[in-house]
């Protein structure tokens, strides 16, 4: 799950010079604007066929946390 989310991040976000792993902060490390963040989340939702609620996103900071949320929704 994390591997696929990292692949999406590499495709959707500018990741030059940022090591992507479970501890990578989506906002701080990837320096995403709110629009870029929403585009990234939309791509994750589309890839996995899930919906992520806005209130769920408030608790997500890292790629690892996002992967855990996606795993919970896919199961």
What does this structure look like?
The protein contains four helices and no strands. With 75 residues, it is mainly α.
What order do the helices and strands come in, and which of them pair?
Elements: H1 2-12, H2 34-48, H3 54-57, H4 63-74
Concise overview:
56% of the residues lie in helices and 0% in strands. It is built from 4 helices and no strands.
Structural class: mainly alpha
Distance between the termini: 12 Å
Q: Biggest sheet, open or closed, and with what strands and sense?
A: none
The percent range for strand residues is: under 5%
Tally of alpha and pi helices: 4
What does the overall shape look like?
Answer: globular
Helix content: 55-70%
| Number of DSSP E strands | 0
Order of helices and strands: HHHH
Mean pLDDT: 94
Any idea what the radius of gyration is? 11 Å
Structure keywords:
75 residues, mainly alpha, 4 helices
């Amino acid at each position: 799950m994390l591997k696929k989310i990292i692949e999406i991040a590499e495709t959707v976000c500018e990741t030059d010079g940022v090591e992507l792993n479970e501890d990578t902060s989506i906002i701080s490390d990837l320096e995403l604007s709110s629009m870029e963040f929403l585009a990234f989340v939309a791509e994750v939702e589309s890839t996995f066929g899930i919906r992520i609620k806005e209130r769920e996103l408030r608790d997500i900071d890292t790629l690892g946390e996002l992967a855990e949320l996606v795993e919970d929704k896919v199961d």
